[in-house]
Amino acid sequence: MSSDFPTIAEASALIAAKQLSPVELTQHCLDRIAQLDGTLHAFLHLDAPRALAAARAAEADISRAGPRGPLHGIPLGIKDIYDVEGMPTTAHSRQRQHASPATADAASVGSLAAAGAIILGKLATHEFAFGGPSFDLPWPPARNPWNPDHFTGGSSSGTGAAVAAGLVLGGLGSDTGGSIRLPAAYCGIAGLKPTYGLVSRVGVLPLAYSLDHVGPMAWSVEDCALLLQAIAGHDPADPASAARPVPDFRRELDLGAKGLRIGVLRGFHAVENPVNAATGTALDGALDFYRREGAFIREVHLSPLLDWRAVGMLIMLVEAFTVHQEWMRGRMSWYGERFRDRVALGGLIAASDYIDAQRLRRELILELDHATADVDVLLTATVPSEAPRLDQVEKWATIEQPNFTSPFNVSGFPALSLCAGYGAGGLPLALQLIAKPFAEPVLLRAGHAYERAMPWRARRPALAAA
Amino acid sequence: MTKLSETAFDLLVERAGLTLTAAQRAEIYRAYGAIEILLDRVRRPRDMSSEPATIFTLEKKGAP
């Protein structure tokens, strides 16, 4: 294989041209996992024989009838809160440490399997997608391939690490307050939280019903589009599933940035929660790019981040406590400290306060809808700086500090994090783009236009390249 | 700093059905101060007609 790190799009083209075998590609990933995962701890469950068998079947199918699509024969990893038939769903928790293998795929996993993707295994997560990074669980936390002493971000921590290190070509994460976008930012990859309801949540352990989103993580924006194409669509079994036709998410990918109307949420990242100098320079650099390419830039102002934070956190805590109430009352000690203590707060919040949070939520959504009437995408930070050290991630930071990601779980608007360069220490920087509901094509267009013009995708973690 | 009294906090814990160790109780009580800041943001005067985001509509399935 000519490149150690093909993207899904690149590998797919090679497979279609019969210049790359799915078996060779899968074995390559398995070899990298054997080499690197002892350091990165990205995988909780790996099924190499099954993956190779699937790869051989894909190779035979492709030889006979050509590829079903761009994911046929592509090795992927799945966050361990999704059911994958024949594999346990542990949620990285002692509560489910000995869970029996799932009897059916989650809806989105089934879609990937139907597209011919090769599922290598289950990836590390913060406990039940909320409680990490933790050192008191049956498995250690995943580590950042750019510097293993540093945080991957979470909760889709294993997916972020595995994609960045080339252990898989893409994967699924989930996002309730930022859990796709935060690890995408810290691990230097692309992560997409789609519009609420675009992708089925069936077969995924819930954290907060009205905030949970299913979405793709991959090295590039184009790869996210390919993954989203396979998993998007109405599912009658998901009460929140949108009954809308699925567009071609790549239809606008190559249109460039000319004419895009971009709203900058400068109040968020320059005033209320100031990003560090490197991130600020990266965001300004992105705006300069868009301006040069003929996009129209203006400022957009929304209610304070703390309002969005209050709504998102109160709703998440109450819904998460409700999901876990039986175990929180009956076997609380089986949880790790971070999940346990955070979710306990959810049991202390009055119903009237939960309803008031939902009332403010409606007001904020209407405000965002009005503010984006004449823009195509919004731009702000994903995170305020590069990834911190793993041993310096404060237990209560997620409660106490407003973040840039939660407003788009509260509102359900689609949001994309992509690499925006590297800091002085070599850790990735990121920016966040947000579009209107179900406007993923223009969101992906804006991200792809920036990404292909920048040199960031040419660099991989040194550990992974060794 | 948490404004809620410890007595009131203990009542909330009991109502939630939680059994906390002394150390857990102390730490969660301290963290509750951050929740109070968030609660202050959502508790604001509203007209009675202000509805939550959870109000739903029924789809017209099978309508002509």
The helix count of chain A comes to 16
Counting helices, strands and paired strands, the structural category of chain A is alpha/beta
Q: Pair with the most extensive interface? A: A-B, 36 and 29 residues
Helical run tally of chain B = 2
Strand content of chain B: under 5%
Mean pLDDT, all residues of chain B: 91
The helix fraction of chain A, in percent, is: 25-40%
Global geometry of chain A: globular
Percent helix of chain B, as a range, is: 40-55%
**Helix and strand string of chain B, N-terminal first?**
HH
**Roughly how many Å is the radius of gyration of chain A?**
20 Å
- Termini gap of chain B: 59 Å
Strand content of chain A: 5-15%
Keyword list:
heterodimer, A: eleven-stranded mixed sheet, 16 helices, 11 strands, globular, B: mainly alpha, 2 helices
Question: How would you characterize this protein structure?
Answer:
With 466 residues, chain A is of the alpha/beta class. Chain A has helices spanning 8-16, 22-40, 48-65, 107-114, 157-164, 181-187, 221-231, 266-272, 277-292, 305-330, 337-346, 351-371, 397-400, 407-410, 440-453, 462-465; strands at residues 43-46, 75-79, 118-123, 170-175, 190-193, 213-218, 261-264, 296-299, 377-380, 415-422, 428-435. An eleven-stranded mixed beta sheet of chain A has the order 1-3-2-4-6-5-10-11-9-7-8, with helices on both faces. In chain A, helix 4 links the parallel strand 2 (75-79) and strand 3 (118-123). The radius of gyration of chain A is 20 Å and the shape is globular. The two termini of chain A are 16 Å apart. Chain B is mainly alpha-helical. In chain B, 50% of the residues lie in helices and 0% in strands. Chain B is built from two helices and no strands. Chain B is elongated and about 50 Å long. The mean pLDDT of chain B is 91.
